[in-house]
Amino acid sequence: MLTNLDDMQKLGKDNMDVALKQFGAVSKGFQAIATEVADYSKKSFEQSTAAFEKLMGAKSLENAVEIQSAYVKTAYEGFVAEATKLGELYTDLAKETYKPFENLAAKAK
Fold this sequence. Notes:
Layout: H1 2-56, H2 61-108
């Protein structure tokens, strides 16, 4: 009976370790995503403000259209790059979240 109790305690400890590792990975991943989103938001705001200032100083309609077109192109490229980066961060988060369970499954076999 003592060996069963010891086994249960060890199993409980192992499960707690897995849960804590998973929580740490999730926390770290979401922190990286939040930081990335905040940085992108700041950069996007700065770019839009600069474009607006250029637009206000435009001398002609053609110049205003050129400024607007350049801004839209830059904003779109930045958005696509950011979406790709966030996709990679979410993929990494999923992989890191699953890692503790891989070890647990190996132990169960």
